[in-house]
């Protein structure tokens, strides 16, 4: 599952590309790069959702709604599709939501 947002003149008057992906960790160890990140940790979803920053932001609240729907297998997110484009006759990857009647619909979380 993925979502993204693009905005101009955000923090530090720069453009901002914000991507959200649901991934599975290879381990639960968090390796913090002290030059870029002050603190990082795993936390229960409830603890994350209850943070004031999340509660006060409509975008984050919508992202949480999508994650919870995904965990409940009520939302499949974007699916990967391999297609050939006539622009270059090469195989490309296109990500899009499947429709309910799509035979490729697969909402497995494991």
UniProtKB/TrEMBL annotation:
Native organism is Anisodus tanguticus
According to UniProt, the name of this protein is: Uncharacterized protein
Output the Gene Ontology terms for molecular function. ADP-ribose diphosphatase activity; NAD binding; NADH pyrophosphatase activity
Where do the TM regions start and end?
none
PANTHER family referenced in this protein's UniProt entry, alphabetically: FI03680P, NUDIX HYDROLASE RELATED
């Amino acid at each position: 599952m993925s979502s993204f947002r693009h905005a101009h003149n955000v923090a530090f008057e720069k453009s901002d590309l914000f991507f959200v992906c649901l991934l599975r960790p290879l381990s639960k160890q968090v390796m913090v790069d002290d030059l870029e990140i002050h603190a990082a940790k795993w936390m229960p979803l409830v603890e994350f959702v209850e943070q004031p920053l999340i509660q006060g932001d409509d975008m984050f609240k919508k992202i949480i709604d999508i994650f919870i729907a995904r965990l409940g297998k009520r939302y499949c997110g974007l699916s990967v599709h391999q297609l050939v484009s006539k622009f270059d006759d090469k195989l490309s990857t296109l990500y899009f939501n499947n429709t309910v009647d799509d035979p490729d619909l697969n909402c497995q979380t494991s």
